[in-house]
């Protein structure tokens, strides 16, 4: 018996994300590594704003989300967004 699984509605946007098509290595680099490639991909992604909002509202502390690094998101939170 084959059962299909569907993403929850609040995560359905992830299927359209360019990162889902390129792999996570760019978006979760080793500490001290460049996030330039991830940011370049995010810059082309049509759902970058949704991704960033998700990361901020779920306190995602690692990786590049919505074109911003961990440090940039932390600074944004501290500034009151």
Automatic annotation (TrEMBL):
It is found in: Cytoplasm. Residues 18-75 form the 4Fe-4S Wbl-type domain. Keywords: 4Fe-4S, Cytoplasm, Disulfide bond, DNA-binding, Iron, Iron-sulfur, Metal-binding, Transcription, Transcription regulation. InterPro entries: 4FE4S_WBL, Whib. Binds 1 [4Fe-4S] cluster per subunit. Following nitrosylation of the [4Fe-4S] cluster binds 1 [4Fe-8(NO)] cluster per subunit. [4Fe-4S] cluster binds at residues 19, 42, 45, 51. The keyword Transferase does not apply. The keyword Transmembrane helix does not apply. One of its GO terms (biological process) is negative regulation of DNA-templated transcription. Its main location: cytoplasm. Its cofactor is [4Fe-4S] cluster. Upon Fe-S cluster removal intramolecular disulfide bonds are formed. GO terms for cellular component: cytoplasm. One of its GO terms (molecular function) is 4 iron, 4 sulfur cluster binding. Belongs to the WhiB family. Acts as a transcriptional regulator. Probably redox-responsive. The apo- but not holo-form probably binds DNA. This is Transcriptional regulator WhiB. It comes from Streptomyces haneummycinicus.
